[in-house]
Design a protein that fits this description.
This protein is mainly alpha-helical. Helix content is about 75%, strand content about 0%. A two-stranded antiparallel ribbon has the order 1-2. It comes from Pseudoroseomonas ludipueritiae.
Amino acid sequence: MSTTAASPPFVPAQRRIGSIAAERRWAMIGAYIALAVFVVFFMLPPFHMLMTSLKSSGEIADLSGNPWIVRHPTLQNYWELLTQGNYLIHFRNSVIVTLSTVVISMVISTMAAFALARMKFWGSATLATGVFLTYLVPETLLFIPMFQIVGSMGLYNNILAMILIFPTLTVPFCTWIMIGYFASIPKELDEAALIDGASHIQMLWKIFIPVALPGILAAMIFAFTVSWAAFIYPMAFLVSSDQMVLTVGIVSDLIRADTFQWGKIMAGALMAALPPLLVYAFLMDYYIAGLTAGATKG
């Protein structure tokens, strides 16, 4: 008796193609629905902030009105922030601290990543892992010993303390990002440069930095974001309004006891969010390329 297995039913090619197209269409529809839900969910808070910033104090206090609609829009909150108080001083302090942190972080982390990725020495792999692990220590455990260090250096209530402290948050992760990027660069470039008589500094400056520019930009964006949005250290170390950065200055100057100037708070927060928004809008491609560069080598 024959025991041959029954062959599967024949499906025409046109029908298979139509089935695949339908599956892709439904997958695309589902993806767009999920994306729409995601956008609405995450855009509601900024939208509410914008609506509140365009209201007068009386309209904000009127609980009978719709919080999502502005009946009488006004730019008074923005005007008062920019012409009165210390908002511009806080903004200037944030710019100084952030730019200084980015420069210091890039100088240290670039040289450290190059040494750990290309100048192999005993314990370099362990040291690289240790550098990254320091980034995982939370700020809530560090700000107390940092407070003692800052006080002993006479930098309490001075933005210079932020310039010295913030790199402790940014350098470990920036170094880790660039280690992966430097490791993905072909070693033939090192060998060719050494044959031509180049020093390690010349190799770093003329070869690795131009080639690793996307990774360096990704590290710069990370350092910018961390230093611009830091809150715990400025709250602990900065007291006077003329030394505060935006994250602390908005809260300290616009909240008095149980009085919240919600219109100005929302306006100040929106303007403070513009620099990171512009940075990510123009450099997002470089940021993604830098974060994923270490996934492959060669």
